[in-house]
Amino acid sequence: MTRYSFKLLFTVFALFWTAAASAATVQKSLCIWDLMGANGETYNLMKDYRVAARAWGVDFTLRSYSEEKIAAEDFRVGQCDAVVMTGLRTKPFNGFTGSLESIGTIPSYEHLRYVIATLSSPKAAKLMLNGDYEIAGVMPFGGIYFYVNDRDINEVGKLAGKKVAFFDYDKSQAKLLQQVGAQAVPSDVTNFAPKFNNGSVDIIFAPAAAYRPLELYRGLGRKGGIPDFLLAQSSLQIVIRANEFPAGFGQNSRTYINSQYDRILTVIKKYEKDIDPRYWFHIPDVDRARYTAMMRESRINLAKEGLYDKRLMALLKRVRCQLDPTNGECSDSQE
């Protein structure tokens, strides 16, 4: 074989291989909500996700969104093949994982590690499916805390009459605020922070990731603070239309996202350290026990009303009892 013939054969083989690989890869769009748009940590994570997804037969085009509502709507109407958004926004697509932000159910990042690993397991694959939709990954987004414009609001009884911003697409939040006598002010991701910063509301709840991008220190001012009592865990979730992706894509995606837990947690802890330490104030242990009991009673009622998925509540209780078997709730069957 001449040198020219060898080069020709090699070129033909390379072109054939490239064409075959291209034919085996489908083009899809991934719409990503990130507070910082294309400059944010979530968007950067999804750049690496895009590289990994090629091995599973998908080549994503990434689209950034700074308004979550628009990202969710574009996915709903088919302008996005996949979307990254908060767990609260996923409820219409999967009520099981959409209940992860339930109050008081995941008390630490170690608990959350177990939860996400469990949800990412092939054994949980059926629970990730709901009609045409599939949850292709669950990521931590940080612990949710109250932000108050006055440190004197330091116990539940003082919430009565206070204006609290809540996300109007999550009925469970409105119910919880009603129970404590607070004035629930309908809001969404685009306007809850400005309402707090300009004094229209007294209280918001948010993860640390929102503190600097949304300038929440303006609303905290000199008198405000953040009680060091964890309310819930926030999450980001990838939602796809299962039948439009290659077989096994969802499981491959969940496995990959789970492998990134420590990387994501490092970013979350960095955000938490960015909060000025003077804003944190301590809730006494005696009050913590009382608030934990109140949250449990509330979520049991919300699950009975169908606002939380009972299957997930049972799973989260198993995780809590696995990590702390002495917990009093482990001896009853209410969840």
TrEMBL record:
Signal peptide (UniProt feature, chain positions): 1-23
Keyword annotations: Signal
Pfam families linked: AdeT1_2
Keyword Signal: yes
Tree of life domain: Bacteria
Name of the protein in its database record: TRAP-type C4-dicarboxylate transport system substrate-binding protein
